[in-house]
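Quick illustration for those who missed Monday's session on complexes.
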Amino acid sequence: MDRRTFLKFNTLGLASVSFAYAMDHSKMNHGTMDHSNHNNMNTSFIDFAPKDLKLLNINEIASGKKLAPLTLLKNESKEKNFFRATIEIAESEIEIAKGKKTKCYTYNKLIPGPKIEAYEGDTIEILVKNKLNEATTIHWHGMPVPPEQDGNPHDPILAGRERIYRFTLPMGSAGTYWYHPHPHYTTSKQVFKGLAGVFIVKAKKDALSHLKEQDWVISDLRLDENAQIPSNTLVDWLNGREGEIVLINGQLKPKIEVDNQRIRIYNFCAARYLNLRLSGAKFVLVGTDGGLIEKPVEMQELFLSPASRVEVLITSDKKGEVKLESTYYNRDKMMVKESPYTLHLADVNIKNSAKNIPQILRQLPPLEEPKNFKEIIMSEDHHKMHGIMKKSESEMKSALASMFLLNGKVFDMKRVDERSKLDETEDWIIINKSHMDHPFHIHGTQFELISSKFKGELKKAEFRALRDTINVRPNEELRLRMKQEFVGLRMYHCHILEHEDLGMMASLEVVEK
Ligand code: C2O
Ligand code: CU
Ligand code: CU
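Prediction with copper (II) ion bound:
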């Protein structure tokens, strides 16, 4: 949508600041499937929250408690280099607001899910029991897992069924990963209902293995006045949903103590962009999604688009309490007008600043020259937005399910969009020709940003880093270098989960050389 259309929406008074409903719900028939769309597009997964939805008062949630560490997933194996465990996926009632039970989807009855911690070289065997009334998968985000073990939408675990995911963690794969569902059309819903967990792969020894660790899992949640998780609004479907309640390890505004530690930070939010800062202290970036970077980099602010992770240390001249905040990031949302705001996420007590930080953290192998190129264009079909408010519910759903595109197409499970050769280094040029930010993610590998082009200015990457997810601004062009080391089908998509469900996704087939 261009600026003019955007303004038009706003002058019509159809969007409000905190919670926008820009649609006529009177025509809607909630909770029924919609079969009336004109083409054969599936839109039955799109549903809308009731118009008169009232949100929970955030004061009903306890805050200010000491940050609890994540619960570890227990290794049931006695064998060396073998990790065996069970994950049960079910609907559970969790007390998030005082005295109220929230129906959530959970991994082993926990939000966030249990933390998996394993070592390079380990073989992982996880039995997954799906006790939900719907299909799901577990996708091992960012990890070098064979495609048939990676929870692709093509391999659902049907309701009531179970399966075992089995893979071996290669040497050099130490990094900060996570796992979440990836079923066709319903990933965003299953994640905002609570399904996501941390997966850390450790090296037996690395430059920072002497340090104690902490995890800060940042997620967001929306609760209605009865403390239940409502469906998306139209605005959520357009921009990705940002839950009003932002949590760290499932806690509201916790008190955190940091004592010269290695901290892994995760953005589990479906669509919320984080721009973290510490009042009176600094971050030292030491790692990204795929593990340690080469040298520490001091940072005043940490930008984390959805699904990104970092490893940091904290330095400060003085001891004592500082605020962890997320400052506003304007990502050009549709149909909402926000005034910039800063989120207070936690109070951090710095007991000891990081000291003696090694100046060499890791040596990455020399960059390989690309043998091939691919161009991926992110776009939005603006015509679909015209008069969206006047449309019937089914027309609105069809518009949603056909407007977020990769190389001009909506995702089709039966189509292969790109092919790559096994172990062949490629440059992927990701171009955002839409009007809003989209975080690009590809399965099965870690890439390096080589350069970016924005408003005519070409910039080389400031440092080498392994990532699997990266934000692309409107009119920005990124050059990413990568290779795939397993034969089979991989997905790449926008990691705003609503966009993924609406079809801003495609598939890559990796073939033998
Ligand atoms: Cu984290 Cu295909 O996703
Ligand atoms: Cu992924
Ligand atoms: Cu997107």
